[in-house]
Amino acid sequence: MALSSSLLNRNGWDVECARLPIAASAADIRRRTGKQSIRIHPRCDAAPSSSPAASESFDTKSFRRDLRNNELYNRQGFGYKQEMLEIMQQEYTSDIIKTLKENNNEYTWGDVTVKLAESYGFCWGVERAVQIAYEARKQFPSEKIWITNEIIHNPTVNERLTEMKVDLIPVEEKGKNFNVVEKGDVVILPAFGAALDEMRTLAEKQVQIVDTTCPWVSKVWNTVETHKKSTCTSVIHGKYAHEETVATSSFAGTYIIVKNIKEATYVCDYILGGNLDGSSGTKEEFLEVGNKFKYAISAGFDPDVDLVKVGIANQTTMLKGETEEIGKLFEKTVMTKYGIQNINNHFMSFNTICDATQERQDAMYDLVKQEPDLILVVGGWNSSNTSHLQEIAELKGIPSYWIDSEKRIGPGNKIAYKLSHGEYVEKDNWLPAGPITLGITSGASTPDKVVEDVLNRVFNMKQEEALVLA
Ligand code: SF4
């Protein structure tokens, strides 16, 4: 979505000329927050490393606590919440969605009856992250502002931040290049957090950190800290390359990441010596190069030693039912192996499924029950929570199309979409002729405006169809 320069000016964010309404110094922040300058625990190594071994000997809990008390760290915003929410409302809301909500989530435009999922779109964690990022731009009008990753998984919102001169840390062959960040710069951490090594690097550079990490994600980090304290291996239900899981595993001690129930079953079968379903093999096979866990285990992981006591954690956006199933499977497995009476010595579980993810998935189950002719799932193609909404429709067998913007529709009756497991598909004649019932939902990072653009594209196609028939 292009933002007009007039809006930039209206909001006082003309960052090119740096004439902004409010500027803040470190002294201002001290006055506002009452925080004192304290020393961050220094890193013992020079180069940033994502090696779990490097973090194992490091007191991650103390580091996070000290960081939170540092005057150059902010995770609450800067006092402009209401103003920023009003701006976001102008930029991201939709009249079509408003009409749907006023009509019990169902409304008919011409030949198209739209059924909107009861819970959809921006979750409070995403809204909060975007709001704090907007506040940072206002608070630091002339400072260079970086962000360690996309603030959320939505191209529209990310483009908007680029327009506001919030730049991504460049990614080079060897990874992110933090050398570009200089003392006095501001660095935003996105909603799904940042890995420990990135935080340590930034703390050492004494830059202003604006942390928008969702509190639900922080809760998972606390969970893996608890596992670590109890010398328990964290079994993380997630995708090993997803930013949130990369961050979570960096705070864990010993861990293994399982993507789905199939991988969890393989691990549990190994624990039971091949007596669950026989899918696992030898220890060497478990660890061999190319094995599914190559990138999903902590350094030095030994399945014979490190699967004796396990605790469950998850990437907050995974399919809720699957996380529960994986938790139950591990609980049952260790009960079988060590006896029910010893369960507390071998298994730990906390509920770390985020409410927003759960609500959107529950609403999607309700939507598919209504059996619309087809479903559009709107959300970024790298959005994990959106992929699971698509998965629910696929499991029900309803034609469902996961698109990240209205640009995926056309030319003509053509659509380019993704399936839940990431496969890219192009399809002709996807929109049936005549009256249709269209189910629609959107991922937790998707502004209503993007959904509106998608629906308008469908309405236009139907109008063109009517003209041809006439
Ligand atoms: S989906 Fe949940 S964990 Fe993720 S940002 Fe939203 S509220 Fe936070």
UniProtKB/TrEMBL annotation:
<feature type="region of interest" description="Disordered">
    <location>
        <begin position="40"/>
        <end position="60"/>
    </location>
</feature>
<dbReference type="GO" id="GO:0051539">
    <property type="term" value="F:4 iron, 4 sulfur cluster binding"/>
</dbReference>
<dbReference type="InterPro" id="IPR003451">
    <property type="entry name" value="LytB/IspH"/>
</dbReference>
<dbReference type="Pfam" id="PF02401">
    <property type="entry name" value="LYTB"/>
</dbReference>
<dbReference type="GO" id="GO:0050992">
    <property type="term" value="P:dimethylallyl diphosphate biosynthetic process"/>
</dbReference>
<dbReference type="GO" id="GO:0046872">
    <property type="term" value="F:metal ion binding"/>
</dbReference>
<keyword id="KW-0004">4Fe-4S</keyword>
<keyword id="KW-0560">Oxidoreductase</keyword>
<comment type="similarity">
    <text>Belongs to the IspH family.</text>
</comment>
<keyword id="KW-0411">Iron-sulfur</keyword>
<keyword id="KW-0408">Iron</keyword>
<comment type="pathway">
    <text>Isoprenoid biosynthesis; isopentenyl diphosphate biosynthesis via DXP pathway; isopentenyl diphosphate from 1-deoxy-D-xylulose 5-phosphate: step 6/6.</text>
</comment>
<protein>
    <recommendedName>
        <fullName>4-hydroxy-3-methylbut-2-enyl diphosphate reductase</fullName>
        <ecNumber>1.17.7.4</ecNumber>
    </recommendedName>
</protein>
<comment type="pathway">
    <text>Isoprenoid biosynthesis; dimethylallyl diphosphate biosynthesis; dimethylallyl diphosphate from (2E)-4-hydroxy-3-methylbutenyl diphosphate: step 1/1.</text>
</comment>
<feature type="compositionally biased region" description="Low complexity">
    <location>
        <begin position="46"/>
        <end position="55"/>
    </location>
</feature>
<dbReference type="GO" id="GO:0051745">
    <property type="term" value="F:4-hydroxy-3-methylbut-2-enyl diphosphate reductase activity"/>
</dbReference>
<dbReference type="GO" id="GO:0019288">
    <property type="term" value="P:isopentenyl diphosphate biosynthetic process, methylerythritol 4-phosphate pathway"/>
</dbReference>
<keyword id="KW-0479">Metal-binding</keyword>
